[in-house]
UniProtKB/TrEMBL annotation, chains A, B, C:
Source taxon at top rank: Bacteria
Residue span(s) of domain SnoaL-like: 18-144
Keyword Flavoprotein (UniProt): no
A Pfam family recorded for this sequence: SnoaL_4
Protein name, as recorded: Aromatic-ring-hydroxylating dioxygenase
Keywords for the protein's UniProt record, in alphabetical order: Dioxygenase, Oxidoreductase
Gene3D superfamilies: 3.10.450.50
Species annotation: Streptomyces pristinaespiralis (strain ATCC 25486 / DSM 40338 / CBS 914.69 / JCM 4507 / KCC S-0507 / NBRC 13074 / NRRL 2958 / 5647)
Length: 152, 152, 152
């Protein structure tokens, strides 16, 4: 292995640890979303979690409302057009806050694959901001605002 | 730099170190794949590595078979339609196992660019599971199963 | 939490810390680019930074030239066709160099969303190499070469 430079002080080790932790958390969270595990996805939010998922719609507040929205998607839009959704997050910034929460900003896009069609539909492209909090040592989303790029 | 919260115990440092290591490993591995370096790509698998790359096809077993598949792609499909492929992995989860291997799950998509055409073809979107093992301190893929979303 | 394997020696911790640091740096840098903050984007390069951004065009040298190129894009192409651009980087490799700089290689693609159109244009897909350097403890791009896949 190439000798590494000594430029990562302990605070950078901390942010690096947090950074990977957040990436792993998001990967698990979208797995629940993309397989429509409504309760598990809702449980990745704090009990009072706010999911401001769509401009013009009321934010979803609390796990019951978040789980219900997943089930409603499953029973209506997905039932009529059973795409496999894959949420991709990227270009993540993690900003530790003084109160122990993490503010994050990232890009998101959805790939939607119809059965038998190898090329997915791509979009929308979104900008997302989160506040993450620890509950019993586990990351949870306390607040999420999704801003689709096409809504101006 | 913002003061970071003291929420990353040593086990999280370990998983964070592994997480970045796996990301870097995958980046190198797909570079071999996308430039059709057949031997180097095959060498990123363990000697007995299994590459279950396509539903309905037999899994590729061992480096000789894996390298042969890359060369066959190069000599047939790529020769007829010389796209530049770019494999993108995302939403990675790394699960350390008690036996010292790592189980991973992630999304993958291929971008394929034709000469002179700025917009790439996108797809297929896939879900991938790997088992990674260390050989002489280096990560290798011991097992990979690729499940394209369009195959149901 | 699953017990983690003891396979991440201190050099891997260093590379992991650097890896997350580079990811976070790129996320901030593209945020400036995608919101057309010309001065802030230029400031993410070293004073003598080189941005070889397009085959056939002269490389941009220095922050003044880089900022001017962003403003020119804003005043011409973006004014005529106000897409929201989102630069996505992926499959990053970080190679620490003996002189304290970091060489990186990664894939990049641009998603461009037109107002009111939920599906973004995708492309071009590119291969990028950077040299990153530390200035006052902060990462800066010293050199960047962007190679679009469609240019052969």
């Amino acid at each position: 292995m190439t000798p590494t430079v000594a430029t990562a002080p302990s605070t950078d080790l901390d942010i690096s640890a947090l950074y990977a932790q957040v990436q792993q958390f998001y990967a698990g969270q979208v797995r629940h979303l993309d397989t429509m595990r409504a309760e598990e996805f809702a449980a990745s939010f704090t009990g009072d979690g706010v999911f401001d998922h769509r401009p013009g719609a009321d934010p979803l507040v609390g796990r019951t409302a978040i789980a219900a929205a997943i089930r409603e998607y499953q029973n209506t839009r997905h039932a009529a057009d059973p795409v496999q959704r894959r949420h991709w997050f990227n270009m993540l910034q993690v900003f530790p806050q003084d109160d122990g929460t993490l503010r994050t900003e990232y890009y998101a896009v959805v790939l939607q694959t119809r059965p038998g069609v190898s090329e997915p539909m791509v979009g929308p492209s979104c900008f997302v901001t989160d506040v993450l909090a620890y509950e019993d040592g586990e990351l949870r989303t306390k607040f999420r605002k999704v801003s689709p790029d096409y809504v101006v």
